[in-house]
Amino acid sequence: MTGAGMTGTGRTDTGRTDTGRTDVGKLVGRAVEGETRAVARLISLIENGAPELRAITAELCAAGRGARPARVIGLTGSPGVGKSTSTGMLVRAYREQGMKVGVLAVDPSSPFTGGALLGDRVRMQDHATDPGVFIRSMASRGHLGGLAWATPQALRVLAAAGCEVILIETVGVGQAEVDIASLADTTVVLLAPGMGDGVQAAKAGILEVADVFVVNKADREGAQATVRELRNMLGLVERPWRPPIVTTVAMRGEGRGDVVEAIEAHRDFLAESGELARRRLVRARDEIEAIALTSLRSAFAGLHGDRRLDALAGRVLSGDTDPYTAADELVAAVS
Amino acid sequence: MTGAGMTGTGRTDTGRTDTGRTDVGKLVGRAVEGETRAVARLISLIENGAPELRAITAELCAAGRGARPARVIGLTGSPGVGKSTSTGMLVRAYREQGMKVGVLAVDPSSPFTGGALLGDRVRMQDHATDPGVFIRSMASRGHLGGLAWATPQALRVLAAAGCEVILIETVGVGQAEVDIASLADTTVVLLAPGMGDGVQAAKAGILEVADVFVVNKADREGAQATVRELRNMLGLVERPWRPPIVTTVAMRGEGRGDVVEAIEAHRDFLAESGELARRRLVRARDEIEAIALTSLRSAFAGLHGDRRLDALAGRVLSGDTDPYTAADELVAAVS
């Protein structure tokens, strides 16, 4: 997939050579030096599934070899709980500790339009001029493994650019929050009073993915009821880590220290229990699998052109074969 | 995966042989005769990824050969818009036309617990004793292609049992509604006044998947505003089919005829434009791909046991290799 943005010539300032191909080594080198535009361009290439993706990843892996891995914190919650405000609050907290911070706002709801919404980015504009903060929105496009496939590469870019902390923010709906949880060291689930979130929490399985609960908008009526409801539900779950419940008013920065402390506590637990190493191994495994499946999918897609898949589908529709037998033929055709 | 329910012996009344293996041919035969328990058992086997899945599908395909395909109608919307009530309303409408109706309530929010919530089923109990209605809840478990993989098989069971109309109901969040849209002939998107759904609609990409809009709870304040907002947004989209907007009060059955009519109109459009045949081909293609990917994933999972994938992941973590090279090795190992 070479998008329109890939074919320009002569714009070597963004890492392209005169022939229109991207000089990946150069681009990664600039990202490592912390150049915002190089970081942005790399993440765009990743998001668009550019043919350079493989080379980019290899360069990033080489560049990051031996470096301390970035801490990855996921933030998720229903629309309206104050995710962007809370992300902004955490960015400020880590910036004050002198850390370089990356933010990935992943929009799982827009598989068609092909571009992440700008809303969240706009609300983060406080940090737009801070060279110690990288902010990117990503759309998790497509069907299978959209997020699982692109996000680890984007995290790698931000880590290579020197980010010590990376916040991934996503709407807590359906599969996206589970995907985020599988990518983050610590997953923060945000709730707000009076949104029926308590009940939703159990339903959406967020009890299983949350490492820290934040009840935001805690100055509103019902905040304590939400905390109580959460606490009761957590009492039913047997886990080695009992997620703390923190209350905040992110708009005013209230409770900021408590959130950071809860994240630190979880971090310590991860390190001491060996869970951090285990999570990272699982993550690497998932990434390898996601890439392998994506490349197989591309191989399948290649068959669309030569009509073989259409012919198989036609035979299933007419009842000449069943989809399992057809799938066997498909796998045989690409291997 | 052989669940606890698979190992009983002697319970031949549910289609098992004395040795504990399921007699698939017999079970499918009973489902074709409309036996509710056989239908339920087949869908459970499918949902649990039973080893008999392949045989079941082959039997169902053979049984369904030459039969008129069932009409598949998807219903989706945010929590609280009245999906189950609306589904119930449509069930009544089609039953009055003398059609046999299947309902699949798919819960995309619960990948962990492994069981769909019963709430929706309970609310449908009006129809529980009607032999012309089959109602099943399914959890779309797991990661990649959960829904895409199991739902077509469940649809096949219901069609084999003689259902002429099948309603798939799912919460309209994230990927699930897109998956539903790809499985349904007609996708009905439900909204309710005063839920900020108008804005959410554009964001969630439902404009692209909706064939019919239903504004439910139309007796509430703001219903007309929601209709206007939708109409304005639809005005911006160029599509050969302009989705009609219908208002209902599903609780009282108001607007029932209008919804059925709108679905009929879309159905006629599909048939006349050739879109129905195209959608069915795409669906068959998607199903074959989903099965192929699932079988490859199982092959990958088989490597977990022999530690090869762990070793690859470790090499990626240490920087000895990059995930693309590791993915190549993974694919080579299973093909």
What does this structure look like?
The structure is a homodimer of 335-residue chains. Chain A has helices at 24-32, 36-47, 53-64, 83-96, 119-123, 146-160, 176-183, 197-203, 206-209, 223-234, 256-273, 275-305, 308-318, 323-334, and strands at residues 71-77, 101-107, 133-139, 165-171, 186-191, 212-215, 245-247. By secondary structure, chain A is α/β, with parallel strands linked by helices. The first copy, chain A, has a 7-stranded parallel β-sheet with strand order 3-2-4-1-5-6-7, with helices on both faces. In chain A, helix 2 (36-47) packs antiparallel against helix 6 (146-160) and helix 8 (197-203) packs parallel to helix 10 (223-234). The interface between A and B is large, with 71 and 70 residues.
Brief overview, please?
2 copies of one chain form a homodimer. In chain A, helix 1 (24-32) packs across helix 2, helix 2 (36-47) packs antiparallel against helix 6 and helix 13 (308-318) packs antiparallel against helix 14 (323-334). Chain A has 14 helices and 7 strands.
CATH superfamily of the largest domain in chain A: P-loop containing nucleotide triphosphate hydrolases
Total strand segments of chain A: 7
CATH class of the largest domain in chain A: Alpha Beta
The proportion of residues forming helix of chain A, as a percent range, comes to 40-55%
Q: Tell me the distance between the termini of chain A.
A: 22 Å
The class by helix and strand makeup of chain A works out as: alpha/beta
Q: What is the oligomeric state here?
A: homodimer
- Please provide the ordered H/E string of secondary-structure elements of chain A: HHHEHEHEHEHEHHEHEHHHH
Stretches with pLDDT under 50, minimum 5 residues of chain A = 1-14, 110-123
